[in-house]
Amino acid sequence: MSIHAQPSGPTPAAADEPLVSIVIPAYNNADYLDETMKSVLGQTYANLEVIVSDHASTDATWTVMQRYRTDPRVTLLHTEAGGGALRNWNRVSQAATGDLIKLVCGDDLLYPTIVAQQVAALVAEPTAVLAASPRDIVDANSVPVIKNRGLAGLTGVHDGTVAVRKSVTQGTNIFGEPGCVLMRRSVLEKTGWWDSRWPYLIDQASYSRVLLEGKFVGVPGSLAGFRISDSQWSVRLVAEQAAQAMGFHNWMAETRPDVVSKADRILGNTRARVMAQVRRLAYVWLGRRMSKAVRSDAAASA
User: Fold this and answer.
1) Predicted local distance difference test score (pLDDT) of residue 232
2) Among candidates 71, 72, 132, which has minimal Cα distance to 100?
């Protein structure tokens, strides 16, 4: 099922601006989706289409989506239950028609100029297949916890293999969550869409396959917000993340030893174990900041 409204919309984009598809695979995001949608539709870049699909949510996600049914840029879809994140990520991505694609989870935030800056980076380097920027880590109430995290110093234009190797040796996803990344849709399609063999690394594994097809551009400056909350799926996977990261590193070393050496793999696996422990401690330290109820509690005591 789809709903695509057609009233008059914003000022048309310039003819030479590539169409960007921002796709949102929503699942039980009723508490945050409205804020996410406002950040997406508030971009300074004009030539956008926004595709949102509700993956059989059990909360009011579909109801929140209806607030945007009259925006001509927005298409609303349903995704059948089952299939995990992969089904909905592929659903929205395959429905996209833009030259460039950015997937945004239904509780994350885009800062106003991220699309414009990343489009400019890809236009300036036609052989680049993926651009990424740092992000802020924000709590359930959108307050930054850690600012300007990501890229591990890899800014500017680099061969994609350099970026893949860097991400493996760091033992973590230096590119950030999907909202931090803008890709060429044709290359994502060529590489088989999203790769969920390692569920916690569905984004990093997919980026890596895309980056083996061309160059990478690191766009400096924090341009998005990744939300940590008590409903965030990465929290539930924290006990498995090191094992999944090592599985991905091992696969890269086996299939592309010209990109990831045995020494790279060993270093990356060691750091992945450390990063998993650091992330676990961070979730404990953040505690109640991962729950949106903190805002209500604060208001009640004011």
Assistant:
1) 47
2) 132
Instruction: Give percent helix, percent strand, percent coil of the chain, each to the nearest 5.
Output: 45, 20, 35
- Would 189 be classed as within a structural domain? yes
The 10s digit of each residue's pLDDT in 266-284 is 999 999 988 877 766 666 5
- Domain limits for position 111: 2-227
CA 141 to chain centre: 19
Which residue, 189, 193, 191, is CA-closest to 209?
191
> What confidence tens digit (pLDDT) does each residue in 111-160 have?
999 999 999 999 999 999 999 999 998 887 778 788 989 999 999 999 99
Give the separation between CA 43 and CA 41, rounded to whole angstroms: 6
CATH number of the CATH domain containing 121: 3.90.550.10
Write down the pTM of the prediction: 0.85
Query: Which contiguous run of DSSP H or E holds residue 163?
Result: helix 160-170
Name which of 157, 197, 149 is nearest 177 in CA terms. 149
Q: How many domains does the chain have?
A: 1
Q: Residue 211 falls within a domain, yes or no?
A: yes
Question: Is the separation of the CB atoms in 215 and 127 below 8 Å?
Answer: yes
Token digits of residue 186: 């044709």
Cβ neighbours of 268 (radius 10 Å): 27
